[in-house]
Design goal:
CATH class: Alpha Beta
Number of helices: 9
Number of domains: 1
Largest sheet: 5 strands, mixed
CATH topology: Rossmann fold
Order of helices and strands: HEHEHEHEHHHHEH
Shape: globular
Radius of gyration: 22 Å
Length: about 230
């Protein structure tokens, strides 16, 4: 046997030595899944969820589709239902998950509760917030379990960010992912959900189910909460 030839036993030892330790992070390509996110907001929510989409490999960016609704609660769910049906008539793979993202805001209770009922009846996932989407932003920095006005969310965020909070501002999302903690926000959102257990959605304030969608996206992208 030549001096530089490797025996079978030596090869096994080399492969064992080269094996990646169980705790060492590795680049794992996520299983391809298709998400549709239909939002009530025309810019704020799309800017936030675009961050997740931008983390996908180039050949997978089409697996997360964001549809800015710019319409009230029930219309958002109706659009999600329609978009899902339209997708099934194309050659593209069907959506694995369809999400409607909307807020209570100043809409009547029956409108907010009705949108949730419509989503449930049609198999649409919903990331509803009471009172506003900005609650999800606040929870990434501090716990909040008292009902306040939308304007007060803006005031809290302005103090945290160090600059005036304005909707649709990309710098806000940048700050969220650099200094906020979405894993902690998930835990606090779950705590609020337990706090309001048994109440109608319109009476569950503050509360947000955005955490459910973020959990799914974080899992899909392999985010560990420190990204």
């Amino acid at each position: 046997m030549a001096k530089d030839e490797e025996t079978f036993a030596q090869m096994l030892e080399r492969l064992k030595a080269d094996k990646v330790p169980p705790n060492r992070p590795v680049n794992v390509v996520p299983e391809r899944r298709y998400f549709l996110i239909v939002s009530e907001g025309a810019k704020t929510e799309p800017i936030y969820f675009q961050y997740f989409k931008d983390r996908l490999p180039r050949d997978m960016v089409d697996t997360i589709e964001i549809e800015p609704g710019g319409m009230e609660t029930i219309r958002v769910v109706e659009l999600a239902i329609r978009k899902r049906a339209e997708r099934r008539t194309t050659q593209k793979p069907p959506y694995d998950e369809v999400w409607a993202v909307f807020d209570k805001d100043d809409f009547p209770a029956e409108s907010f509760n009705g949108a949730i009922a419509l989503a449930k009846a049609n198999g649409i996932e919903y990331a509803a917030s009471n009172e506003a989407f900005e609650l999800w932003y606040v929870l990434q920095y501090q716990y909040l379990d008292v009902a306040i006005r939308r304007e007060q969310y803006f005031e809290i965020l302005s103090k945290i960010l160090g600059f005036p909070y304005e909707k649709n501002r990309p710098e806000v999302v940048k700050h969220l992912f650099e200094r906020g903690n979405f894993r902690r926000a998930i835990q606090w959102a779950k705590k609020l959900e337990q706090l309001h257990d048994g109440k109608p959605p319109a009476e569950s304030c503050p509360s947000t189910r955005v955490y459910l969608l973020v959990e799914k996206l974080a899992e899909y992208l392999g985010m560990d909460g420190t990204d």
